[in-house]
Specification:
The chain is 10% helix and 39% strand. With 183 residues, the protein is mainly beta. Belongs to the dTDP-4-dehydrorhamnose 3,5-epimerase family.
Length: 183
């Protein structure tokens, strides 16, 4: 497994496993404490694992947490997703930077998203299972959502949206969220 820096988002990393493939399929390590530690992250900081299942065209996000935020490891364990990260850390050299990824069950690549960044994804396959490893217990009172179609972000979602939560559909603009965070 190797760690690759994401230039568009300071502190973000892709963790690419080295799969062993044969006639049975493949085997690969999806988390390695030594590799995580090698880029300055605490592997013991992750306290919660979650899984979402989405169908083709479903959009989830853009989500982040208020307060201290939350860092997370995201991996598409089955299927394929278009994944988006937006840096909303005012002191970051990549503030308002955006990065797009295709994560898939075929590669099992994991994306590390630092606290203070918004995250969202769209399912590209009929079934897409997305695994999350989060560094703080979830507190719904800290949930923040940003409009997926905010023109300032201009995210190139690859498919027509087939479904999303009401919360995501009614999310405020980036400007509104940033204004609220400053007050």
């Amino acid at each position: 497994m190797k760690a690759i820096e994401v230039p568009a988002i300071t502190g973000a990393y892709l963790f690419e496993p080295t799969p062993y493939a044969d006639e049975r399929g493949f085997f690969c390590r999806t988390f390695d404490t030594d590799v995580v530690r090698s880029v300055g992250l605490d592997p013991d900081a992750f306290v919660q694992d979650s899984l979402s299942r989405s169908v083709r065209g479903v959009l989830r996000g853009l989500h982040l947490r208020s307060g201290a935020g939350e860092a997370k490891l995201v991996r598409c364990s089955y299927g394929k997703i278009f994944d988006v990260v937006v840096d909303l850390r005012p002191d970051s050299p990549t503030y308002l930077g955006r990065a797009f990824f295709e994560l898939s069950g075929e590669t099992q690549t994991t994306l590390y998203i630092p606290a203070g960044c918004a995250h969202g994804f769209q399912a590209l396959t009929e079934t897409a299972d997305t695994s999350y490893r989060i560094d703080r217990p979830h507190d719904p009172a800290e949930d923040v959502t940003i409009a997926f179609d905010d023109p300032e972000l201009a995210i190139p979602w690859p498919l027509p949206i087939t479904s999303m939560s009401q919360r995501d559909r009614e999310a405020p603009s980036l400007a509104e969220v940033l204004k609220h965070r400053e007050s």
